[in-house]
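so the lab meeting is tmrw and i was supposed to have these ready like two days ago... anyway. pasting both below. for each one the top line is the aa sequence and the line under it is the structure tokens. i havent really looked at them closely yet so no promises
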Amino acid sequence: MAHSTPASDGPERPDGTAYPRARSEAEWREELAPDEYRVLRAGGTEAPFTGAYTDNHDVGVYRCRACRAELFRSDARFDSHCGWPSFFTPLAGDSVILLEDTSLGMMRTEVRCASCGGHLGHVFTGEGYATPTDQRYCINSVSLTFEPT
């Protein structure tokens, strides 16, 4: 079975409803830089410790780089030292969609933007971080923009 990606899955959420900010793949290719497209639409991952927000500690809101939807707030960010920005919860439970991902021969949970379907990263549970949810939303910096407050 082929790996599921936002580009291959199309403009609908897993429940069959349309993503509110869906675009054609041609439009995404035109709007996004190649590295942004590779992560957000093709389900890629940026190299660890290279992203713009890996060590960002400013106060503000993290938005989806593709559609600008609000995803995470800085007060839910923590230092996991994993190489990518980490959050213990999304801004609102319905700002992201979680999907089963077995692409690497193991079970992971993929995180996608609920507004446009863009691939953001993965969420891991039970790793022992001292966070209120015991979750680590491990998100690619290239999937995000940051709006300081």
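ok protien two:
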Amino acid sequence: MTHHSRFTWTLFLKTKNEAFDSSQKLAKIIQNEKGLNIVSIRSDHGDEFQNEFFEKFCEENGIHHNFSAPRTLQQNGVAERKNKSMDEGWRTLLNETKLPKYFWDDIVHVIYYTLNRVLSRHILKETSYELYKGRKPNISHLRVFGCKCFVLNNGKDSLEKFDAKANEAIFLGYSLHSRAYRVFNRRTLIVEKSVHVVCDETNSIVQYNSLEEEDVGFKEKDYSL
């Protein structure tokens, strides 16, 4: 018996050059986790998809690579609608929170993370998470993006007797590799991953107008253990 499933996958790419490597990794994940083989894929005629590497990969794995007609967005209707919704989503959150523009990738991650767990497919009446995992998602850990939060020092720095045990931070989302939150520590100016986070959602989204472009360090530390 052959099992056929149709999924729409969204790859988050910082540059188009990552398309091939990310697609390879996704194919391996699907095969290892679900025991399924990809039968066909559809893309536009972008150079990141229509090249010798993709052609060889599809040929070796028996994948039919279908292309939409040039300048015919309706043939990629689902993907185009998702792209439009995503553009509106991250632009809205960026303007609401007044965060610097280089936080846009965190916004994209958190929007997809949330939508996969709360938005149901109209026909199947299930979320994307349910379709892939086979069980309902736990959404009790979801928090408001950009809200004020406090992250426990937890031995990261040596504290004096009267020093605060927690630092104020900005909630940025969820770690993809551990059960931890991602926050921007306003004292250290570093993005951290930690489970020791308390969020203040009383004012929903908190605007940080004083956070300037040059304020953020581009380091990330994992304190989730």
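from a quick look at the 2nd one: Residues 209-215 have pLDDT under 50 and may be disordered. Residues 77-97 form the longest helix (21 residues). will dig more after coffe
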